[in-house]
Amino acid sequence: MHVKWIEVTGLRGFTGPCRIQFGIPNGETGSGLTVIVGPNNAGKSTVIEALRALSKPSPPSFSEGQRNVKAGSRVEIRVCNSEDITKEIRTTEAGGSETEWVNPGAWPPPSQIFVLPSRRTFQPFFGKSLLTREQFVTAYGLPPVRGQPIDHFSGRIFQMQANRDAFDRVLGRVLRPLPDWRIELADNGTYYLKFDFWGQCHNSDGAGDGLVSLLFIVDALYDSQPGSIIAIDEPELSLHPSLQRKLADLIAEYAKDRQIVLATHSPYFVDWAWVVAGARIARLVRESSGLVSYQLTDKYLKRIEGLRRNLNNPHILGLDARGVFFLEDNVILVEGQEDVICYRQIAQQLQIDLPGEFYGWGVGGAHNMRIIAGVLNELGFKKVVGLLDNNHRAECDLLSEEFPGYRFMTIPADDVRSKPEIKARDPVYGLLDEDGTLRDHYRAQMTEIFRSINSYLSPDATR
Ligand SMILES: Nc1ncnc2c1ncn2[C@@H]1O[C@H](COP(=O)(O)OP(=O)(O)O)[C@@H](O)[C@H]1O
Ligand SMILES: [Mg+2]
Fold first, then answer.
1. Partner of 124 for a Cys bridge, out of 117, 205, 224, 357, CB 3.0 to 4.6 A?
2. Which residue, among 362, 449, 443, 442, has the nearest Cα to 407 in the 3D structure?
3. With contact defined as beta carbons under 8 Å apart, do 31 and 255 qualify?
4. Which of helix, strand or coil describes residue 135?
5. Which residues form the Rad50/SbcC-type AAA domain (predicted)?
């Protein structure tokens, strides 16, 4: 049994119902992942908090500050399972902070959902207790304010020590070499974690934020069962990029048969291979109507599979390109990597600042622009510019027709760069001459093109 979607209404920034489809695990790496991306304050953590509310056996209370006035100060969190049966938490008839369950017996049971907020900290000196996964999930409270230490985590630390081999095996997938760690008793009767990095010792208070955060994440994974649901807010917190990559791979492996929801600002946690396998990306954005969620449909997922097989252009979907999901908006699509470099040079020579970011190292040829523009469109990007060579006018017209809200333009030359004649090809006279200087007779037209991009991308431009 799996979660198909969750719908949040009236919690924090969510005014109307906002539905997020979940990745369904099918045995393939990453298939059970749901990755929530979007700018700051777009509601990512709120979705994680909504899942946390579903992990409480008794209906939670929501303070006034957590409720959205535009939604009548009423909260509704619905979850639908693979048998199309829904259960929900909703504000009671009388209103106020109190909620009630509707159909509480439906799958998933609260104990199946394990949620980690961002800012994962615990009291470094703690009392003795031992909590199983289920006991911990039901024991830790929903903090009324964000960023507090996670209570009862010490119970999990004693559990980690009891299952040390299993825990270290998973931690060692990300952190190598593994530090030696153990629980120690202080003279005042409290306990602490002691870490030993090749003779350099410190207690839990001295542990780096990244290490502590990783302990929480590995704890959420290592004793989970297939079918369980794990949500992690900002898994990348305080982690070095190479650890982020290893952690992302570890999480993707667990997502073969578990559902894992991540809210992230890190491109390491989005991989197109996982998306093609079934993972879902949800991009949350704030619009005048409130917070909105955008997700890719099968139409583009199929076309992405084709791009993934393009061995000559692995960067089309590479890390630089994935960075685009973490931008606010204003994306400039160009044909290839030379274009990215040369248009930057031209803008510099014309002393015009372009208020947008180039998509990775280009889209890998004019023919791919429709796929990338389509992906951006489905993910709710409002302002996208495409610059094509003069000899791709027909493609430019088709793009303008398919994406009327976006702006596609051809440059006045057949290429950006000039190229010498080779046997099978006539010479190409590009915008830039052989020394990389913009040819004088293109200055006026390129200024015009860049100015028009600017007026489209600037926030006050009318569309
Ligand atoms: N009671 C409330 N009513 C309306 N909007 C709220 C309320 N509480 C928080 N918000 C808004 O909800 C959003 C919270 O988003 P959050 O989930 O923290 O975003 P993210 O994790 O994406 O940064 C913010 O835009 C904030 O302005
Ligand atoms: Mg957040």
1. 205
2. 449
3. yes
4. helix
5. 7-82
Helix crossing, 164-174 with 209-222: angle to 10°? Answer: 120
Q: Checking DSSP bridges between strand 18-21 and strand 3-9, what pairing results, if any? A: antiparallel
Which residue has a Cα nearest atom 16 of ligand 1?
Answer: 43
**Quick check: 333 and 387 in contact, CB under 8 A?**
yes
pLDDT exceeds 60 at position 95: yes
Report residues whose beta carbon is within 6 angstroms of any ligand 1 atom: 12-13, 38, 40-46, 65-68
Print burial letters for 181-210: b (CB count within 10 Å at least 16), e (below 16).
bebeeeeeeebbbbbeeeeeeeebeebeeb
Best of 6, 9, 12, 77 for a ligand 1 pocket test (most atoms within 8 Å of beta carbon): 12
Whether the predicted model's global pTM rises above the 0.85 cut: yes
Quote the CATH superfamily of domain 3-295. P-loop containing nucleotide triphosphate hydrolases (3.40.50.300)
- Condensed to tens digits (0 to 9), the pLDDT of residues 256-278 reads 999 999 999 999 999 999 999 99
pLDDT of residue 201: 79
* Domain residue spans of the chain: 3-295, 314-457
pLDDT tens track for 42-82? 999 999 999 999 998 889 999 999 999 999 999 999 999 99
| Half-sphere CA count of 389, side-chain side, radius 13 A | 22
Which of helix, strand or coil describes residue 312?
coil
For ligand 1, the distance from its centroid to the CA atom of residue 59, given in whole angstroms, is 21
Q: H helices of 231-386, where?
A: 241-254, 272-277, 298-308, 319-322, 337-350, 369-378
| Short-list 59, 105, 61, CA closest to 81 | 105
Same CATH topology for 3-295 and 314-457: the answer is: yes
For the domain made up of 314-457, the CATH class stated in words is alpha beta
Omega into 241 within 30° of 0, i.e. cis?
no
Among 46, 234, 264, 328, the mutation site with the greatest number of ligand 1 atoms within 8 A of its Cβ is 46
Q: In the structure encoding, which two tokens stand for residue 80, read together?
A: 């639908």
